[in-house]
Design brief:
By secondary structure, the chain is an alpha/beta fold. The protein folds into two domains: 233 residues, Rossmann fold (3-Layer(aba) Sandwich), CATH 3.40.50; 215 residues, no CATH class. The protein is built from 20 helices and twelve strands. The strands form two sheets. A ten-stranded mixed beta sheet has the order 1-2-3-5-4-6-7-10-11-12, with helices on both faces. It has a two-stranded antiparallel sheet with strand order 8-9. A hairpin with a 2-residue loop joins strand 8 and strand 9. The N terminus is likely disordered.
């Protein structure tokens, strides 16, 4: 049920000369959800101490932010680590392009380097800047359970609906929340999307930019929509890629994901796999391939596999499968993994070892902590255990691939400390310039139905639908049509007259068989 993925295509390093920019004093105007007290000058007049980031492609700096933007002079500061890739070209400058990471929970600090490497024309015109959101990475981090405790969430069979299994799910969830409160309790109420967008606006001010352009994929569309709602006069251009339904609650959005992950698996992956039976030997029809997956899953449930020291059970398989569905480039690795797990003794040792490493920790504990801190704290959740037992039983039955973990995720949010005065941010789109939105039809995580609702919440938006595809993350994904639309918008303010479409790229060919 994750809405996140830290795509490896953002990790490409770009070699570029970086020049210093003076941080200019700025003042913050009131906005929906903004601080009601004056912001102390120590924030508004701080100088960002830029230095080379690890790897040298970017400059980084720590930025001090209030713990609580509604009471900015109360409590100790937090740190938000920021980065920049200075514009490289001699031509006209377009200002600042801010970008953020998905998740919530992914690091955004290094992403300007990958963005610039993939789009040198944009890197020439913009100072591309990023940050680790409060709670994440090099910024002030939230801490909850350790990695073995998080691994234990996926160490049994989440499809098990017996009373003891359901009871154990709630016990694990409550224990995880206790760990969060014990390690980070005084921080939890302030790790919200609303607080984060005020950090973004302080960053804008310290860069001396009256307005910013913005690119955000996945959860970063939520950040962008909230920023645009709270600071509409400070938005110059905005691209929202693979959209969380930011018009409603996290609960409403996340309970829609089991259907979309199952759709991606059934309608895209299984036909692709069946068409390549000569390579992967998983069945000549989608039904045969699906039956093979279920046989393997039952085998791992009854006899967990020791794969080069990694214990592999049915939940490890399901998490790997759902992760692989985010992008068609994941289809071949998933198909290969199915063969390795069914016949590990005949697999290439290097392939087997790499898969064992990938399956060892289904979800990173640091990511897990921030993901739930934001999704459980941003908007209200139903707290009735009976409701979630009934709801998740239906999802497990109808959409088992991701529906089986719904109870685990919901039980954490149902146990989360009740939020205090977190403002309700209604995304309206008032006062915004044209916004470009991108979404594929079969995106498993940020599903198309939710993107349509988000599109309606922003009346000035133009939706680019990637037809016939299901990848998560459209810009810089190898689709020339999408890339041309985004680049034309960001460089030349060319906006489609209305909603438009781009055809998805062909599905990948099969990899060479490695058995």
């Amino acid at each position: 049920m994750r809405t996140f993925r830290n795509s490896t295509r953002w990790s490409v390093a770009a070699a570029a000369g970086l020049l210093a920019v003076s941080a200019l004093p700025a003042t913050a105007a009131p906005a929906p959800g903004a601080a009601t007290a004056p912001v102390p000058g120590r924030y508004l007049h701080q100088k960002l101490d830029w230095r080379p980031c690890d790897g040298g492609a970017l400059e980084c700096a720590p930025m001090a932010v209030p713990r609580d933007w509604r009471h900015p002079d109360a409590g100790p500061d937090l740190t938000v680590e920021v980065s920049r890739h200075r514009a490289t070209g001699p031509g006209p400058r377009r200002g600042v392009l801010m970008m953020a990471a998905g998740g919530p929970g992914a690091s955004g600090l290094d992403r300007p380097a990958g963005f610039a490497a993939h789009s040198p024309d944009l890197a020439a015109a913009y100072d591309v800047v990023g940050f680790d959101q409060r709670g994440v990475g090099a910024s002030t981090r939230v801490v909850c359970s350790d990695q073995p405790t998080v691994d234990a969430f996926f160490a049994t069979d989440l499809r098990d609906r017996s009373a003891p299994a359901v009871r154990a799910t709630f016990e694990r969830a409550r224990s995880f929340v206790r760990d969060c409160r014990r390690a980070s309790g005084d921080l939890l109420p302030y790790l919200t999307t609303d607080q984060a967008v005020h950090d973004m606006d302080l960053f804008r001010a310290l860069l001396g930019a009256a307005r910013i352009s913005y690119y955000g994929p996945s959860y970063a569309t939520f950040l962008g929509a909230y920023y645009a709602t709270e600071f509409p006069g400070r938005v110059q251009r905005m691209v929202l890629d693979s959209n969380v339904d930011f018009s409603g609650s996290w609960e409403a959005f996340m309970t829609g994901q089991p259907l979309s992950f199952q759709r991606r698996y059934t309608e895209d992956f299984l036909p692709w796999l069946a068409a390549r039976d000569a390579v992967y030997h998983q069945g000549r029809t989608p039904a045969e391939a699906a039956a093979g997956y279920e046989r393997l899953r039952r085998s791992l449930r009854d006899h967990p596999l020791d794969l080069d020291g990694t214990r592999v059970g049915p939940d490890n398989l399901d998490v790997f499968a759902t992760d692989s569905l985010y992008n068609t480039a994941g289809f071949a690795p998933l198909a290969t993994a199915l063969g390795v797990l069914a016949r590990p003794e005949g697999a290439d040792p290097a392939v087997r070892a790499a898969l064992a490493r990938r399956l060892q920790h289904p979800m990173d504990a640091r990511f897990f902590a921030d993901f739930f801190t934001v999704t459980c704290g941003d908007t209200p959740w139903n707290r009735s255990p009976d409701h979630w037992v009934r709801q998740s039983a239906r999802e497990t039955r109808e959409h088992p691939l991701a529906g089986a973990r719904e109870l685990t995720f919901a039980a954490i949010c149902a146990s989360w400390p009740r939020a205090g005065a977190v403002p309700h941010i209604e995304v309206t789109g008032r006062g915004l310039p044209p916004v470009l939105m991108l979404n594929s039809e079969h995106d498993p995580a940020t599903y198309y139905e939710g993107a349509l609702r988000a599109h309606r919440a922003l009346p000035t938006s133009r939706l680019v639908t990637v037809t016939g595809g299901g990848d998560h993350g459209q810009f810089q994904n190898g689709n020339a049509c999408v890339d041309a639309l985004v680049t034309g918008y960001l460089l030349d303010d060319r906006v489609p007259a209305g909603d438009t479409a781009c055809a998805a790229n062909p599905l990948p060919a099969a990899a060479a068989a490695r058995r």
